[in-house]
Amino acid sequence: MVKKFFKILLLFFCIIFIIIMIKKHYYNDYSVKNLNMNVKGLKYNIKYKGLKSSVDFTMDNDGNYYIAYKDKIQIIKGNGKSYYLFKNSNLNIYSIEYFNNKLYFSSDTKIYCYDIKNDKTLEIIKDIPNYGDYKNSIIKIRGNYLYIAVGAATNSGVVGEDNKWIKENPYNHDISPKDITLKGINFGKFKTGAYQSYKTKSINGQIIPEHFPGNSSILIYNLNTGNMETMAWGIRNVTGMDFTSEGKLIAATGGMEDRGVRPVKGDTDYIYEIKRNTWYGWPDYSGGDPVTSPKFKGKANSMLQFVLENHPTTNPPAPLYQHKTLSSIKSLAVDNNGNLSAKNAMYFYDISNKILYKFNGAGAIEEEVKFNKGDVCSLKFYEKGLLILDGEEGYLYSIEKGNINNALKVNKSIYFYLLALVVVLIIILLKAEKN
């Protein structure tokens, strides 16, 4: 009897050891940790998994989720049923939104509308100048308006060898959404001017006529009438945008980099409030400061020069927040209902250190969540909290108020199955002993 007891005890501890090793060496890799100890209580869960290579998501009022991939869109219904609404190898989907039983999504130079009930796709916007460095348009819907971010074609307004796309599009360059006048400064051994194709010079006083739509801008499209206009311009590249409870458009933008024939040293990423009919400074200002200020340096630490003769303003808006690093903010969401924290707190993901930050609009940012692996590609608030899509690992996380859960368990059912295995093995062992 004692011998039987020790066999059962040994078996039990072996199973417990297996559970601990699985949790330590496999599941813990997918955990997130709450780094802000001042948070009264947040709970972390995985809403859906198996979403590898996804790029964005949205949801409707009936609890259905729509997951966008490069060339297809998947629906996950409230009852758990999942299937693809459509697939199209010609698409290059980047951003998706839901409105009135329709899905709107960006793909290369176009915006599409997919009617869910009729299973029909319609091209509603075309000829967006998405051929350059920042060619993926983020879209956002508020009310009856669709907002579309159009990135710059170049780093700082001048085409150079750092723009790998010149091999396929040698005549491409930045297109201005408003009339501008150039100073006639040319760069590099081929003397390329701003807003010119590669190896094309500019001259002093040269007027670049307005073109719609243009690069480095945000567009507004009326979903009822189909009318479209430029909301704001001089915005290098938007990496995330959302709205406050008052309807203010908040956007994360990337600063100019130390590359190309007009390199810029000393810049960082920013978060702005975007206002109508406003110029935000690119390519001669960044973060509200002129590139001629001591903050920035050019090639061989030289002083930078303006490329525009006359600026729409010498005092473009300053950002709400200046990040410490460059090319690191990816995705942004505003807690406009105060689900997790202060109302209108801004949450953004830093790809360089895999940290989700919170910014309340003033003061220092706060570290909210640290990801051990994966890559967040989209953040969106819903009625209970924040949803986070990790397209690299294939998880849609939810963060809500509740008891603190510092280690996010990927698959709770594994413990149930292992416990059941222990019981079955004990029963088998007992029967064997009787025989």
Explained architecture:
This protein folds into three domains: 41 residues, no CATH class; 94 residues, Thrombin, subunit H (Beta Barrel); 201 residues, no CATH class. The longest helix has 24 residues. Strands 1-29-28-27-26 form a five-stranded antiparallel sheet, with no helix packed on it. The protein has a five-stranded mixed sheet with strand order 11-12-17-18-22, with no helix packed on it. About 3% of the residues have low confidence. It is built from two helices and 32 strands. With 435 residues, the chain is mainly beta. Helix content is 11%, strand content 35%. A hairpin with a 5-residue loop joins strand 3 and strand 4.
Low-confidence spans? 25-29, 404-413
**Tally of separate helices:** 2
> Could you tell me the mean pLDDT?
90
- Please report the total strand number as a whole number: 32
Share of residues in helices = 10-25%
Mind describing the biggest β-sheet?
5 strands, antiparallel
Classification by helices and strands? mainly beta
What's the overall geometry? Answer: elongated
User: Reading side by side through the largest sheet, how are the strands ordered?
Assistant: 1-29-28-27-26
**Computed Rg:** 26 Å
Strand content: 25-35%
Q: How many independent structural domains? A: 3
Distance between the termini: 14 Å
